[in-house]
Amino acid sequence: MLQTINYKGYEEFKEKTSILVNLIERQIGVVRLLNQPERETNLQLLKDLVQSSSFKVMVLGEFKRGKSTFINALLGEEILPAYSTPTTAIINEVKWSDTKSALLHFNKSDGKSLQQPLNVPIDQIEEYVVIKDDENESEAINESPYEKLELFWPLELCKNGVEIIDSPGLNEHKTRQQVTENYLINVDAIILVLSCEQLFARSEQEVVDNKLIPMGHEDIFFVCNRINMIRKNDIEKVKNFAIKKLSSRTRKDAKRIFFINALGALDGKLDGVQEELEKSGVPQLETELQNFLTNERGRIKILRPAQELKNSIREVRTSIPEQRNMLQTDVVELERRYAAAQEPLRNLEGKRLSIVRRLENLIQESKEQVNYKTKDFCRDLVPKIKTVAQDYELESEIKLLFTDPRPSIEAAVKEIVSYLESKLEAEFVNWQNLELEPLLEKRMEYIRDSLDVEATEFVKRVDKLRLEISGVSVSRVDVSKGDVGVRDVSAFERVLSAAGGFLVGGIGSATIGARFGYQEMLKSLIPQLVIGIIGYVILGVNPVTLVPMLVAALVHGKLMEGGLGNKIKQEVAKKFSEQLNNTTVEIIENVGNSVSAELSKVKDLVDEGLGAEIQNIRQQVNNVLAEKQKGQKEVDKKLKQLDTLIQNVNRIDQELDDLISQVAISGTNK
């Protein structure tokens, strides 16, 4: 197979990742010798997360846009079948393996244990995931027991840490669409496949404006496929139209818009014809995608764990002098100090409980405020539905004479339902931007500021107690690196770090805009809070149930009064309004519970981090007392080991600084 581009960018990123993993491993060795098991556990989790991190690229596209052909062209092999009909409601994840295999994952069932994934022979995949011609599509999708299919393949692109996620179509079925939306939060890049023959249809525009952009995806890759099908004289006109429509919807304007011939690229790769491949436009896309993943996304995947490693280095540089001084202190005096510290330690436990209760109250207040805001939104939306429906001009022709009215009524119902869905989504996005997100950001900032005051007092008391026990004051190490992404941490972030706070959302939790820190981490949770709420209304309005009702009304002559089209719009609007009224309580509860659940993750980390700060004092004193019981010879040996460890930590820190600088420089040069 012909290789499109060199993978130097991916290889350089893997090399930087390997350096970071090595530094984390060396730091694990340091904290292990210091007998700090909780910190060792957090570092091990950090290492595992960095090692397992991959670039997740989701490919979206409506039916008949050439999505499967494009993915095959990207991978350089015909892996995904380009079916002529919509086929499956599950995600396909294409990953690296030196042997070909397929793993089918089952959906979670309420009250039942999750079934183990099923190994599926490659040549039998279609039997499990493809909807057969004689099956009802909606029933097949809703009753499918499968969640996703993992395809493992010996592909060069995937070997470099890239996972291709083939999503269900965007406009084929609501269940398919919901499956796709659930993935959107965690992917690194979005590629939207369009067709030059029908460029950027209204439904595609609604997906971009109402889903992708509101969820923070500012770097959408627009792939305009089948440029080869456009007449030569019309190509420039099509390109200009695409740039006009799409450039404002992606951060780097025309640099994120590509005109390609996916089938030509696939044939060029398979046949080894370089000229055909270059003409296809795919190599330019692959180069830009590699730059984006390895620099902009890769920067986050290295600098965020680097921040956590810096935090660990800071703590070790504090604890080593404390241990040294305690080892040099008379055992009777050390035991006296530790005994005197028991009451302050109990007070710290009380303060810990007070902070957690305060946070619980703040979370409840946030939930209540969001509930009120959501209730107002639903209340104000109901009267808008009727107005929007009545103002819409139906395009479907309603035929009644000498023919069965059902098909034309069904077409009209589907049309107005689709239109109202798009309008509801637009209303929701507008509310999300103007009302919900500002409220959540304000609450999150208030929580951060309130708890930072509490955490500052807490860590001051912790450090004072450490001073009283160890007899040495060690200033906190400045870990700021200015504009390269690693910075000073607040008292609250120190507490979160003690609990492995980075792990609350994984490497990608502060994805959008390459931001760092607790406030940004909380902001990045917003898309997880708001995704799918509008589905409560939309999924409850089923054209299949509306059509028989409208046909029955037609038979009795009730639809003819005032015009059939108007009556259809009235009935659909009525159904939407009823559904919204019936689900308002559920929507409010869902939004409020989502807010509470996400913020409770932070609360649990705070509780764990405060406990870790207290436990660290006890652990350190007990470690020293245990060493002293072994005799002076072992104490002298331990003191010598501490000198070696601080030298090791300094080397780790210097090499980490070098890595951070390399990542920062490579990011600014691209």
From TrEMBL:
| Superkingdom of origin | Bacteria
The entry's protein name is Dynamin-type G domain-containing protein
> Dynamin-type G domain location, by residue?
51-305
Enumerate the CDD domains for this protein: DLP_2
**Where located?**
Membrane
**Keyword Coiled coil listed:** yes
Cross-referenced InterPro entries: BDLP-like_hel, Dynamin_N, G_DYNAMIN_dom, Mitofusin_fam, P-loop_NTPase
